[in-house]
Amino acid sequence: MAIEESYFYPEIEPYRTGMLSVSDIHSLYYELCGNKDGKAALFLHGGPGSGTAPIWRRLFDPKRYNIVLYDQRGCGKSEPYASLEENKTSFLVNDIEILRKHLGIEKWLLFGGSWGSTLALAYAQAFPEHVSEIILYGIFLGSAREIDWFYQSGAKYILADAWERFANLVPSEKQNHLVQSYYDLLTSSDEDLQLKAAKNWSELEGRGLRLKPDEELVSNFSEDRKALAQARIECYFFLNNCFLSDNFLLDGISKIRAIPGIIVHGRYDLICPFESAWKLHSAWPEAEFVVVPDCGHSAREIGNQKALVAATNKFAGL
Prior knowledge:
Elements: E1 16-21, E2 27-34, E3 39-44, E4 65-70, H1 89-103, E5 108-113, H2 115-126, E6 131-137, H3 144-153, H4 160-167, H5 178-186, H6 191-208, H7 215-221, H8 224-239, H9 248-251, E7 261-266, H10 274-283, E8 288-292, H11 302-315
Parallel strand pairs: 3-4, 3-5, 5-6, 6-7, 7-8
Antiparallel strand pairs: 1-2, 2-4
Helix pairs in contact: 1-2, 4-6, 5-8, 6-7, 6-8
């Protein structure tokens, strides 16, 4: 994939992997990398439903960090695949706590981007005593306004060509409610229709990821298996406003105000507009706020890479 990676640490393999049962239905894949005696850090992937990837191990100095990554319910290597059953925000928050106890970690740094930033904030507000620091990027607060921006009333003015392809899978009379209409397609009994809708949904997101679009990245996002899990789970969560009331996370900032934090956001983030990061910064001014002037949403973009690795280095004492 044609992506600059000059700020990431070298490739690394896990020293431990496993599957953890978190309910009668769901089992989660997890992996640990780096220094088993190092500072514990949990990477929370986006989506919801995108799954983790080896590249995210490389955001942390492997000599200083004990790096924990896992696939949230229904995606990646977790089971059952693409499942919507018992899959909502409160369950995902509890899963993190189950994983922490399973690994015997008292406190860990939370690192979350996009949906991962939402989940990091939700977990930190529920269990602040187990969070040492928080690094967030591509801020998404789980609000109806943010969801409407990308799928209905905002991004279409910038991604007009891609958005039109996205909308045109749905009859014109249903295009005013695209998240609901896509949910109907993604839960259809017709598996071919499900997959077509999933690829459309994921392609739109892929085209919004970077300030300078990367066709290989778009193709990766649209790969059949990844697209189906991500589209189904994202659409389900977004139809339900991420199972959060608007302003829920901002209203809970007092619970985490004393936790050291760094917020990173690309100025030209098309998927999660800058407004969300600004609202979080305004509510939580104690956290360091880094605006990357020449980047969009993706942590793979060179400016975002630099800021995020600098953040993990800072909390490692480098």
